[in-house]
Amino acid sequence: MIKIQGGVTAARGFQAAGIRCGIKQQGPDLALIYSRTQCSAAGVFTTNAFKAASIIVNTEKLQSGRARAVVVNSGNANACTGDRGLRDSRRICDFAADLIHIPTQDVLNASTGVIGVALPMQKIEAGIANAVDKLSDDGGEAASLAIMTTDTVPKTSAYEFELAGKTVRVGGMCKGAGMICPNMATMLCFITTDAAISGQLLRRALESNVERSFNSLTVDGDMSTNDSLIMLANGASDCPEIVDGSDDFEKFDKAVGQVCLDLAMACARDGEGATKYVEVNVVNAASYADAKSAAMTIANSPLVKTAIFGEDPNWGRVLCAAGRSEAKVIPEKTSLYFGDVKIVENGEPLAIAPDAARKPMLEKNLQITVDLGVGSSRATAFTCDFSYDYVKINAEYHT
Amino acid sequence: MIKIQGGVTAARGFQAAGIRCGIKQQGPDLALIYSRTQCSAAGVFTTNAFKAASIIVNTEKLQSGRARAVVVNSGNANACTGDRGLRDSRRICDFAADLIHIPTQDVLNASTGVIGVALPMQKIEAGIANAVDKLSDDGGEAASLAIMTTDTVPKTSAYEFELAGKTVRVGGMCKGAGMICPNMATMLCFITTDAAISGQLLRRALESNVERSFNSLTVDGDMSTNDSLIMLANGASDCPEIVDGSDDFEKFDKAVGQVCLDLAMACARDGEGATKYVEVNVVNAASYADAKSAAMTIANSPLVKTAIFGEDPNWGRVLCAAGRSEAKVIPEKTSLYFGDVKIVENGEPLAIAPDAARKPMLEKNLQITVDLGVGSSRATAFTCDFSYDYVKINAEYHT
C-alpha cells in the first residue's frame, strides 16, 4: 500500500471541482465530486435526532446502493430549516443532475455551516453550473479547500495497492476542526475508489472502519446535525469485483481504514484552538467497549484537555476521568504513561523528577497510555488540547 | 419553612470550628463538625472507581448508621495515596476521637485538594487539636470558610420549620467551584439537623434529594474521587422521632431538599471562571430519565457554554445537544426558549429581532427551556458558562 496524492480524484474515473459561489464571507464554498461511470455508494450519517435536510435526502437515495455525484456546500448547514430545507436539498440534486445529464437519484448533497438559515439557492445554482464547467481529473485539491469552515488546513489522504494484478486506488477528503465548526459541529468526509464492489459490501467496509477512526475522534464531545461519510466506488481500475470474505476484501478494507484513520487524525490535529495533538490509548481493558469508553471519557475531559494545554503532567485528572467512565477500573491494577514515561504503577504514583514527567507534555504530539490491567482489549481516542482559542472561536462567533 | 443563618451550626447541639493548619498556601484549611450528643448519620459518595481514602473509611463507618463528628481538610485530597492514605485517614479519626473523648467509630473525615500527595499529618494533628479548642455553637461560618479551595464564596444554607409543636432546623455547608477544583474535581457537603430520625430514613431523605440537586449540577462534567455528602441528625429539637410515610417525614424531606438545592445552585453560580448562572429546564419529556439526559447534555456542551459566555443566542447548539442526548427527541415537536423569549417552535426558528433574542443572554442569570412536546416529565440542570478564566484556572495550575 503506497501513499499517493489526489484526494477524491486519486482514483481513476473521478473528477472534482471547488469554486466560490458566495455563501461564505470569503474563499471557495462549493465542491462537486463526479464519476464518469455509475458507482456503488454507501454512507454513514449522524445519529443526532436533529438531522440536516441533506442527511434525510441522502439516506433515502442511498437505499439504492448507488450514486455518481455529490454537491457539497460550506457556509450554511441547511439544518433546522423545515420543509423549505428539504425542498432546497432536493433541488440541489435535481439541478446538478440536469446539468451533468444523469438521473437525480444518482446525485447526493451535503452542507456545513450556520443552521436555521435558508440556503441562498440562486448563488448555489450559479455555483453548481460553474463547478460543472470546472470539473477536472485533478480537482481533488480544489474540492478539499471548498468544504472547509474553521479548518485551518485542507485534509486529504489516498493510497494505491495491487488487486489481482490491477492497481486500485482509494482516496478521500474531509473537513471538521474536530467535530465542530463555529455554529454547528460538522464532520464531512468523502471517499472514492476505482475498486469494483457492491453497495452492500462497500457499506460494510465503511461501517467496520468508522468505529476506530471517526467515531474515536473528539474535539469537544459535541455531535453534529450534519456529520456525513459518503463513499463511491466506480470500478474503473478494471479489477475483478471484490467479494465478501475474500483476501481482496481484506486488502480493500485495510486501505479504506487507513484513509479514514489519516483523515480522523488530521481533524484532531486541526481541532479548534488546538496547540497539541493527543492520542489516548487505553490498553489491557476488559473489552473493546470498556477501552473505548475510558479513552473517550479521558479525551473529552475539559480538566484533562486544559492540563495538556498548560503542559502539566496532571495524571490525577486522567485517572479520575478513567474512573468515572463505564470501563471496569481497579485502581490497584491501573498504570499510566505520558509518552514513554511511566507515571503511575498499579494505582500509585512513581517517584519521578518533575522535569522528567513534564518532558512529554512539551512536545507537539502527546501519547497518553492507560493500562487497565484487567484484560487484553485496546482502543485509541484522537483529540487535542483545550485552549483559550477554543473559547475565543466559539464565544466570539455571533449568530 | 423559614430561611435562617448558621450553616452546620444552625441546628441545636452542633458545634463547629474552622482554622488554619498550613496545608494550603494561605487561608483556613481544617474544619471540625461536632454534635454534643450521638447522631444518626448517612452519606452519599462518588461512584468514581478511584475513591479517596476518606470515602473508603467513611463508607465502612457509616454502615452503623451513626456518627458524631467530621474532620475536613482542604488543600490535599488524600486520593491515589495507597495504603499510606488509608492509614492517614484512619489516624485522623482516631486522633480527633481521643481529643473529644468519643469512640473513633463515631468520627468521619473528608479531604479536598491535590491528589497523589501524602497528607502532612503533623500539621493536621496540630490543626485538629486547635479546632477542638475552637469548637463553638456559631462556628458554622468559620467551618464553611475552611473547606474552600477555588471557591470564591463560602456556601451555606439553613431552614427551620415546625414539627409536632417543636422547631426543627436543617442546615448545611458545601464547597465546590462546580464539580471541580484546580487539581481534582471535588464537591463536599455536610448537613446537620436536630430532628430525630433513624440512620436508615436519613439515608432515604438524602438519596431522594441528591438526584435533583447535586446530581443535576455540572460545571464541566468531571466527577471527582472525593465527592461526599454527609448528614448528621442528633434529635436535639426534642421533636418525636420521624417515621417512614408520615407527614413529618414529608416536611423534613422537603427541608433537606431545599438545603441541597440551595447549595447545588450556589456551586453552579460559583463555577470556575463563571460569568453566568444557568438553569437548563427540559419539560414535557417522555420520562424523567429523558428530561435529565437532555438537560445534562445541554449543560455539559462546551459549544453551548461558550455561546452563553459570548452572550450569543445560539439556539442551534442547544437543539443539537438535545438531539444527541439519550432523550426521545422529535424535531417537529421541539420548542426552545431563552428566558421568556420563544426562539424555536416545533423545530423551526421564529422570526425574532436579533436584539429580542439576545436580551435574555445579557442577564447574569439565564434560563434555557427546551419543550420536547412528547410527554409530561421535567428536569432542571444547574450550570454556568465556559469562559477564558476556566481555561486559565485549569491550565495554569501546575502540579
Structure commentary:
- The structure is a homodimer of 399-residue chains.
- Chain A has 399 residues and is of the alpha+beta class.
- Chain A has two domains: 2-269, L-amino peptidase D-ALA esterase/amidase; 277-396, ArgJ beta chain, C-terminal domain (Ubiquitin-like (UB roll)).
- Helices cover 32% and strands 27% of the residues of chain A.
- The first copy, chain A, has eleven helices and 15 strands.
- In chain A, the strands form two sheets. In chain A, strands 1, 2, 3, 4, 5, 6, 7, 8 and 9 form a nine-stranded mixed β-sheet that branches.
- In chain A, a hairpin with a 2-residue loop joins strand 12 (341-345) and strand 13.
- In chain A, helix 5 crosses helix 6 and helix 7 (288-300) packs across helix 9.
- The longest helix of chain A has 23 residues, at 247-269.
- The termini of chain A are far apart.
- Mean pLDDT of chain A is 92; it is low at 179-185.
